[in-house]
Sequence to fold (174 residues):
Amino acid sequence: MVVIKMGNMDVFKALSSRTRIQIIKLLSKEELHITGLAKKLGISVPVTTRHVTLLEQAGLIKKRIIGNVHLLTVNLRNIEDAWSEFNDSTELEISKNETLFDALKQIPEIEFKKVKDKQFITSINGEKGYYIYEVNGKPPEESIDEFVLRKNVTISLKKIIPIEKKEINLKIHT
Fold:
């Protein structure tokens, strides 16, 4: 199956429905077929199919076919890509064999914290949290102060945010 990126407008249009957001939530937890999905949503199979078709066209869900059963799951990468248009971009020049930490220290809006002998990114533009990095779209195994730059690369800094949250409503028994 070929996934065609439809652009951010289609993604945001697909996410403009509470039902489609609920579908994304359900499919992020488990793989389901249309009938099971419709049952969990409490709506008909044809209505579910129309919502799923919009989500598929936007590249937000993908289908795995086993015989005549079509299993649906979330395509998290495309959800992440939809937000890429909002990212800040910075270009730096550094010397060969400097570490990523040496490069990132040049950007005043990035804050670090040293834990034991490793440096970690703890804030970008005042937004505190836990951050990871990727080099040309792939996560390296080294920490930022161990990763040595030997060629031109694109670094992506990503804040780790929970995709799934649990909501707990506490009611006082009287």
Notes: The radius of gyration is 21 Å.
